[in-house]
Write a structure and sequence with these properties.
The chain is of the alpha/beta class. The protein has two domains: 21-258, Alpha-Beta Barrel (TIM Barrel); 269-371, Chorismate mutase (Chorismate Mutase Domain, subunit A), CATH 1.20.59. It has helices at 32-45, 70-83, 94-102, 112-115, 118-128, 145-157, 184-193, 203-207, 213-222, 249-258, 267-310, 317-333, 338-371; strands spanning 21-25, 50-52, 86-90, 107-110, 135-138, 163-167, 199-201, 227-231. α2 (70-83) links the parallel β2 (50-52) and β3 (86-90). Manganese (II) ion (MN) binds next to loops. Phosphoenolpyruvate binds next to loops.
Amino acid sequence: MTKLKNISKISKWFDGLKDPLLIAGPCSAESEAQMMQTAKEIATLGKVNVFRSGIWKPRTRPGNFEGVGEEGLQWLQQVKKETGLLTAIEVANAEHVDLAVKYDIDILWIGARTTSNPFSIQELADHLKGYDKPILVKNPINPDVNLWVGALERFHKAGINKLAAVHRGFYPFEATALRNIPKWEVAIELKSMCHDLPIICDPSHISGATEFIPEISQKALDLNMDGLMIETHYNPSVALSDMNQQLTPAQLGDLLGNLIYRRTTTKDADFASMLETLRSQIDSIDQQMLELLAQRMNVVEEIGKYKSKNEVTILQIRRWEKIIATRLKLGKSMGLSEDFIKKLLQLVHKESIQRQTEVMSKLGFSSKKRNN
Ligand code: PEP
Ligand code: MN
């Protein structure tokens, strides 16, 4: 358990805030017209509470669109005045906080890159002391639940109790259809470390493409998450950042209309949601397990090519014996049975040999020819 006590409920942040919290708006503020049109169309849906927009954009490489800066804050004030939506922006340093306060921005979020750096987080926490702004903390780029909790704790220690986490997925090291791997189990672990902490899902940055957003959003609701942050642009095809993952306001309306909000007030529903939570952990772990196995087979094939070129036999008995011995020791220390580890390794080994045989029978002939 963490020291995150007395966390305020989202519905207490502002009058009229509903649960789940729905945040929508463009990845970046681009122009006054883009902001006003997007905001008005979102407001018409009657479902969204908060309008988001990036003002300073943390881009992976310099030279891409880096945000409009202070001017965008004036447009946000206009949005608030004309639509009544609350406003939210990303802040990454003390100057951003000062400007957010100057322009009366309602909610501040901390981006994934910033959460990854405790120096920046401490600077922000020191600077935010005394302000009563709700702070949303996105998960760090790497799946380190302690780094995430640590950032939340730094804000909490600065006296901020209007806090929520935002789950936006983690940088994928293996090729995957999604832009960021959800690793739901990390968000679940955060929830089990701090029961009262609201967690909002950002399906846009997990998905990277609009087609996956409905499925990811539903999963987040099934896991009892407390809200969604969805990138929305009046015309994504002209967006200056993240164009592939932004929905139009009409698409957002369809999505919100199709999502199933399950109630969790009865005992049965609590049980169902617990079961769903555990099953999601299993689903996520299985997916990663399969991705790792596929990755292993790719390496096996590489070795096959290498062996073929150097005319080495497939089965190297010493290496195999070493694999068995080291994996048995490791697996046993993790609480797995000897019998299970052996069977699993044999299965994997059999498939590996098969793969190498295929590679070598394809390459064997041509590599010999090359050698001659
Ligand atoms: C964003 O919300 O536009 C953003 C930059 O997100 P993240 O920090 O999750 O990459
Ligand atoms: Mn974005």
